[in-house]
Amino acid sequence: MLDTLFGKLLLGVAFAAFLALLGGLVFGEGGVRDVHELKKAIALQQQENERLAERNRVLEAEVRDLKDGLEAIEEHGRLDLGMIKQNETFYLVTGNPDARPEAPAAAPQAAKR
């Protein structure tokens, strides 16, 4: 059958159909490439969801502390608002504590005449 023109033509049509189906499978909508891209997008979204879930856990713990305990409220007042208690002395240290002032340079002595 492959020796005849009809057989060769039939084989060529079947091969072309195979290539068209294979191209659709790899490059078409819902194909292998799309699936691979979607898997990457899902992995990125899962990482973002985990990061946001951790942030939510921290915020929930902070809200719980603020509702239940006065220590968290006091800490926020001190750090964020600069509040101090009655009979407390507040010291504000500015500058770099490791920096030492340089000794003033000696003024050149005027030549005596």
Quick summary of this structure?
The protein has helices at residues 5-27, 32-68, 70-81. It is mainly alpha-helical and 113 residues long.
Question: What's the structural blueprint in terms of helices and strands?
Answer:
Blueprint: H1 5-27, H2 32-68, H3 70-81
Helix pairs in contact: 2-3
How is this structure best described in words?
The mean pLDDT is 82. The chain has helices spanning 5-27, 32-68, 70-81. Among the domains are: 1-30; 34-79. The protein is built from 3 helices and no strands. 64% of the residues lie in helices and 0% in strands. The protein is an all-alpha fold and 113 residues long.
Descriptive labels:
single chain, about 110 residues, mainly alpha, 3 helices, rod-shaped
Shape designation: rod-shaped
Low-confidence stretches: none
Radius of gyration: 39 Å
Give me the secondary-structure category.
Answer: mainly alpha
Q: How do the SSEs run, as a string of H and E? A: HHH
> What portion of residues is helical?
55-70%
Number of helices: 3
Largest sheet data: none
Average pLDDT, rounded to a whole number, is 82
Question: In total, how many beta strands?
Answer: 0
